[in-house]
Amino acid sequence: MSTIKWSDKMSYSIGTFAEIVNLSIDTLRYYEKEGLIIPERDEHNRRTYTEKDREWIAFILRLKETAMPIKKIKEYARLRYEGDSTMKERRAMLEQHRLFIIEEKKKLEENLKHLDKKILTYHAMIDKYEKSKS
Amino acid sequence: MSTIKWSDKMSYSIGTFAEIVNLSIDTLRYYEKEGLIIPERDEHNRRTYTEKDREWIAFILRLKETAMPIKKIKEYARLRYEGDSTMKERRAMLEQHRLFIIEEKKKLEENLKHLDKKILTYHAMIDKYEKSKS
DNA sequence: ATAATGGCTGGAGTTAACTCCATGTCAACC
DNA sequence: GGTTGACATGGAGTTAACTCCAGCCATTAT
């Protein structure tokens, strides 16, 4: 009566995994060197990436997209690979990062407001300029 | 009957200007090498920065804060130093950048949402974990 | 008069995050 | 059984955006 879960046993070579997560093979190896993701190896020492790895990479990319430097992601990864006892630390990191993102958002909104103003003054200036030429 | 405008004639040395705009002297010289800001020189070849320069730097920093690479800022600066005839081009650049910022904001908001979810699941996981230890 | 201060130039060094390359192994296809 | 193709490793190269340094002038302070 157990449901078959293909995905549990499935694993990808670095080439196909690279395509799936849309990163280059070299980048994956670089992330491994930095300790962000450490895939299993098969009997020939080839990297084997799983569905879990895919989820983990997706999360890494979110952190990267919100400007977390690799060093910090590496720190988070280290804790994660250490196991459940580090959950509180990891949560604290994410909560700190959350505040950072909120700050970033504020800055972006401020700058967008100013940019909009600037664009408006450009419209006015260009109107004037066009008229002065006629 | 003309109003005296001190600020028009005022100018700062690179050292004091650096403090005012909160950039290092080296960064200012680097920006100049890249063509972002080209201050006047005095009779001894020393850079003299004006109030206009301060405003311009403030704008450069806004562009930087919204992740515009120096190459693009340089392009904008080039047009600006070329004069009024480039206003339309500059406005177009800013309008394009505006769209970019809006995209960035969207991404940030998306990622923030996911992060919040993740933090919530951490809270639940940690509760469970604490109980399992008692 | 000399020493400290501040600025100038050209060029080298640094950091992050990749990216590329030479060389080598192994399984598979013709 | 030789070639092809995917993967492995170690290390060099690249780009952006600074940052630092040596060697040289001019001005100011003692």
From TrEMBL, chains A, B:
SMART domains linked: HTH_MERR
PROSITE patterns linked to this entry: HTH_MERR_1, HTH_MERR_2
Keyword Iron among record annotations: no
Protein name, UniProt field: MerR family transcriptional regulator
UniProt source species: Terrilactibacillus laevilacticus
PANTHER family for the chain: MERR-FAMILY TRANSCRIPTIONAL REGULATOR, REDOX-CYCLING DRUG-SENSING TRANSCRIPTIONAL ACTIVATOR SOXR
Coiled coil: none
HTH merR-type domain segment(s): 11-79
Biological classification of the source: Bacteria, Bacillati, Bacillota, Bacilli, Bacillales
UniProtKB keywords: DNA-binding, Repressor, Transcription, Transcription regulation
Source organism superkingdom: Bacteria
